[in-house]
Amino acid sequence: MSRDATAGVLERLGAVELGVWQVPLGLLAVAVLLRPVVSHDLMLGYPQVATSFLIWMIIVASFNLLMGYTGLISFGHAMFMGIGTYSVAIALSSFAVPFLVAAPLGILLSAGVAYLVGRLIAHKGEIYFAMLTLAFAKSAHFVANYNPGGLTGGTTGLADGTMPAWIETSRGFTYVALGGFRIDWYWAVAAVFVVGMLLLWQLVRSPFGRTLVAVRENEALARAMGVDVRRYKVWAFTFAAAFAALGGVLLEINNQGATLSELSIVTSGNIIIMAVLGGANYFFGPLAGVFVWMFVEEYLADFHTLVLPLTEVPLARIELAGVLVYWQFFLGLLFVVAVLVSPREGILGLLKTVLGRLSARIRGESE
Amino acid sequence: MSDDADPRSAALGTEGLSKHFGGIVAVDEVDLAVESGELRAIIGPNGAGKTTLFNVVTHALAPTSGSVYLDGEDVTDVPQERRPHLGLARSFQSNELFAELSVLENVRVIAQTAADGTFSFSLLGDGRAVRADEARDILARVGLSEHAETEAKNLSHGDQRRLGIAMAIATEPSVLLLDEPTSGMGPGESRETVELVQSLQDDLGLTVLMIEHDMEIVLSVSDRITVLNRGSVLATGTPDEIQGDDDVQDAYLGGVREEL
Ligand SMILES: Nc1ncnc2c1ncn2[C@@H]1O[C@H](COP(=O)(O)OP(=O)(O)OP(=O)(O)O)[C@@H](O)[C@H]1O
Ligand SMILES: [Mg+2]
Questions:
Q1: Sign of the C-alpha dihedral, residues A103, A105, A110, A115?
Q2: Where are its TM segments located (chain A) (predicted)?
Q3: B69 falls within a domain
Q4: Is the pLDDT of residue B15 over 60?
Q5: What is the 3-class SS of A32-61, one letter each residue?
Q6: Collapsing DSSP states into helix, strand and coil, what is residue A90?
Q7: Residues A91, A85: contact at Cβ < 8 Å?
Q8: Atom 31 of ligand 1: nearest residue by CA position
Q9: Which of A298, A303, A361, B105 is the most exposed place for a label (fewest CB within 10 A)?
C-alpha cells in the first residue's frame, strides 16, 4: 500500500463522523467477530462469555444515551436493567407468563418507572440528579432484598423456574430450541444486539437525538432558543431505561434468573466506568469499554492458572499472579487516568488521536 | 421623557417590570413600549440592570412584579422556552454556544426547533439534514459560511458573537434582543456588526432592542434610546432628545456631547 493509501485508511479508521453505513456495518462486525476473537487462544480461549459481552454492550450503550448524548449522569442505571431482569424472572417463576410476553412488559415497566422518576428529577441540577438516581436505585435494591410477597427471592434472588422451556443447555452452551430448530443462544443475542443497537443509533442521529446533544452542550442556551429541556431529558431517561431493560431481560436467561447484584449500586458504578473507559463521546465507546473491562476481568481473574513464559523468569514470578487478580484495581487506575486526561474521550478517543498522529507521520507532515 | 406609546399595543411592551435579587433592585418598575420595526438601544452604566431586563423580558428569570407584552398579548407567565416560538429571541452578553458542535449544527438545531416546537418526537431520519439549507442561508447572511464545519469553540471571538446573532435569527423572530453584540470588537468590526444587524432588521422586518456601550454607534443607528440607571428608566427618546437631556448628561453621558 502506498503511503497515502495507508494514511487514508488510518484516517478513516479514526473518523469522527461515522457515515450512514459505517455504524450498521460496525455493529454487524462486532456481533459476528466478537465470539471468534474472544475465544481465540491468544485471548480468553473460551467462547461462553462473548454473549455476556454483547448484553452488557447494550446496557452500557443505553447508559451512554444519557451520559454521552444528553449530559445526564445517573448513578442508578442498573435499576432499570434490573427491573427488566426481575420482571421476567418473576413473571416466569410466579405467574408462568411466557418469556416473550414478559420481556416486552418488563421493558415497558422499566420505561414507565423511568418516565415517572424522570418527571420528578430530570430538571434537577447535575449533583442533585445524580444523588436522586442513587437514592431511587438504592430503594429498588431494598425492595428486591425485602422480598415482598416472596416475589423477588430476597438475598438469594430467583433461579427456580426462571428459564423458558425453549432454552436448552448442554456442555456449557445455551441453545434456543424453537420447533425443530436449535440455534446458539449467542446468535439469538447477537440478533437482538444488532437490532437494538440500530434502534439506539437511529434515536441518536434523529432530530430528537440532535436536540439531546444540544441540551448536553448548553442547557441554558437550548432553553433560551426554544427547547423544552426538561421534556427532552425525561424522554431520554425513559428511552435509556427501555434499552437497559432490553439488556436486562437478556441477562435473565443468560444468568439463569435474577440476583440482587443486578440492582446493586456497584453495578451502576461499573456501567459508568465502562462508558467512560470506552469513550462517552463515541457511539462505539461503550462497546469498547465493555470489551476491555470484561476481557480484563476474565483474563486477569484466571491469570494465576495460566502458564506464561513470564513465570519462568525469576523476577517476574514473584507474586505477579497474586497481584494481577486484583484486576479491578488496575482498571480503576486506568479509569482515573482516563478521567484525568480527558473525561469524555476514553480508549476510543485515545485510539483516534494515535491513528491521527500516525497518519500524519506517514504523510510526512510535521506536527 | 418616556415611552408615549401603550405597552399593550407595542411590538414589545413592559409595565412596571421589576426584578429583585434579595435586597438588590436590579430592574425597577420599567415601562417600555417598543414599536414594530424600531431599533431601540438600551444604554446605561455597568450594573444598571440591562442584562437583567432582557432576562426578565425573556423569562430566563421570573420577574418579581410587572407585565410583559408581545404584540399586545400578555406573555408574563409564558415559560422561557415558549417565547422564541412566539417570535421573541435573544443573544447573550457572553458567548453562549453549543461549543463542541459545528457552527452549522449550532444554527441548524435551532432552526429545527423553530420548525418542530418546544418538544417533538422526531425519531426518524437524519437529524443533521433537517433544515440544513435554512441554516446555511443564515450562516451566509452573517458571513460564517466558510466556518460552517468548524467547531463553534474554535471560532474567533468576533465570529462567536456573529454566531450568537445567527442562532437568534434561526428562531425566526419578530422581536430580537441583542446583548452587546459588539462587545470585545474593535471599531471596524463593531461597525460591520451593527450594519449586519441593520440589514437583518430591514430584510426580516425585525423589531430590535440592542444593549450597546459604544455611544457613537448608539447615537447613529438607534430610532430611540432608553437609558437605564440603577434599574430604572432615566429617560427614553430619540438620539437628539437623549443628547439634550440634562439628567442623562449628569448621570451617564458625561462628556460625550462635547466630543460629538
Ligand atoms: N442572578 C443574579 N443574582 C444576583 N444578583 C444579580 C444577578 N444578575 C444580576 N445581578 C445584579 O443585578 C445588577 C444588574 O446587573 P446586570 O447584569 O443586569 O447589569 P448590566 O446593566 O447588564 O451590566 P453590564 O453593563 O456590566 O453588563 C447588578 O448589581 C448585578 O450584580
Ligand atoms: Mg449586561
A1: positive
A2: 20-38, 50-69, 89-115, 127-144, 185-204, 232-251, 271-296, 317-341
A3: no
A4: yes
A5: HHHHHHHHCCCCCCCCCHHHHHHHHHHHHH
A6: helix
A7: no
A8: B47
A9: A361
Residue A71 scores a pLDDT above 90: yes
Closest CA to B68 of B5, B2, B18: B18
DSSP state of B64: S
Q: How many domains does chain B have?
A: 1
Q: With contact defined as beta carbons under 8 Å apart, do A92 and A277 qualify? A: no
Residue of A nearest to B123 (CA): A206
- On the 0-12 / 13-18 / 19+ scale of CB atoms within 10 A, A302 is middle
The answer to whether residue B19 is domain-embedded is no
Amino acid of residue A336: V
Nearest atom in ligand 1 to the alpha carbon of residue B54 is 18
**pLDDT tens digit string along B73-109?**
999 999 999 999 999 999 999 999 999 999 999 999 9
The answer to the question of residue B106 being in a domain is: yes
| Average pLDDT for chain A | 87
In a domain, B42, yes or no: no
Interface confidence (ipTM) of the complex: 0.94
Q: What is the CATH number of the domain that holds B138?
A: 3.40.50.300
d(CA A329, CA B96): 40
Q: How far is CA A343 from CA A212, A334, B21, B102, in A?
A: 19, 12, 36, 20
Residue of B nearest to A207 (CA): B127
The whole-number pLDDT of residue A13 equals: 55
Show the CA angle centred on residue B90, arms to residues B232 and B4, nearest 5°.
Answer: 40
Task: Please give the residue range of the domain that contains residue B141.
Answer: 88-172
Q: Which of B17, B24, B46, B59 has most ligand 1 atoms within 8 Å of CB, for mutation?
A: B24
Report how far residue A299's alpha carbon sits from residue A53's, in angstroms, rounded to the nearest whole number.
13
Task: State the closest ligand 1 atom to the C-alpha of B52, by its place in the atom list counted from 1.
Answer: 18
CA pseudo-torsion sign B112, B116, B119, B123? negative
Give which of A25, A7, A9, A336 is closest to A198, Cα–Cα. A25
Distance from CA of A69 to the nearest CA of B (A): 12
For residue B20, report the distance from its CA to the centre of ligand 1, in Å: 10
Query: Residues 66 to 85 of A: which have CB under 8 A from any B CB?
Result: none
Q: How many CB atoms lie within 10 A of CB B20?
A: 14
A225/B124 CB distance under 8 A: no
Angle between helices A327-341 and A346-363 (to 10 degrees): 60
Place of cell 456588526: B193
